[in-house]
Amino acid sequence: MTTTDLDGLKALVTGGASGIGLATAQLLSDRGADVAVLDLDPGKLSLPLLGFTADLRDDVSVRDAVAAAGEALGGLDILVNNAGIGAAGTVEDNPDEQWHLVFDVNVLGLVRTTRAALPYLRRSAHAAIVNTCSIAATAGLPQRALYSASKGAVLSLTLAMAADHVREGIRVNCVNPGTVDTPWIGRLLDAADDPAAERAALNARQPTGRLVSAPEVAAAIAYLASPAAGSTTGTALAVDGGMAGLRLRPV
Ligand code: NAD
Fold this sequence. Notes:
Elements: E1 10-14, H1 19-30, E2 34-39, E3 50-53, H2 59-73, E4 78-81, H3 96-121, E5 127-132, H4 145-165, E6 170-177, E7 180-181, H5 183-190, H6 195-205, E8 212-213, H7 214-225, E9 236-239
Parallel strand pairs: 1-2, 1-4, 2-3, 4-5, 5-6, 6-9, 7-8
Helix pairs in contact: 1-7, 2-3, 3-4
């Protein structure tokens, strides 16, 4: 069923050229929004959407791209801070440079994009920011110290930003995906000795028996971004197949 609940709204999705961001850009567009994508290489976009090149590590390129998107769309109502990178290992495994890199993209990148988008969002009657966080923010996952810390910061920022901007009519929420079947996971599986066996093991570790799909995360983002969620701000919506909330007995 097609809905048009986002008709007339203007949305910017970071990391929108791949995975969760691409599925989100597609869904927001299907539901009536005018959508622009900010990414390192939006030229590879397979959708007929506006693409803007920026590196979240570079404040000038982010400001330029957000302004160009805002001008091209004629405003901004929805910002989806989705782009992010991963890192494996314990606190002993990553040098300082890697910590700076992941925080630069996952945390400061979100701050830079939000800063650039706020002047546009303040002019919207339905302003919403949705951040792509992760169950890693709260779940205590092994071998993910750096990534978890960066997503913990995204969760805290979601709450702080929601408080700071609620009186301006800007809602801020996040989604906490579990393990999502995107090119990101594809790259991890490809690096395994036996990708098919690794995929089967990954599926078996999910309470639902399968990975989360990118469109399922996109649906949660689209809901939080929509006027239907007008009284929802400062929340984290899990889209994780039950990973964080369920206490299942080992089978
Ligand atoms: P993906 O690798 O398929 O897509 C990420 C996109 O972000 C890419 O298009 C990439 O070019 C862009 N990007 C990366 N660094 C950038 C930078 N410096 N500037 C601009 N764009 C940049 O990954 P995905 O799985 O779709 O992940 C999207 C988000 O979802 C990330 O924030 C990730 O942490 C989060 N997440 C993913 C999973 C998962 O299992 N896939 C689970 C939880 C959370």
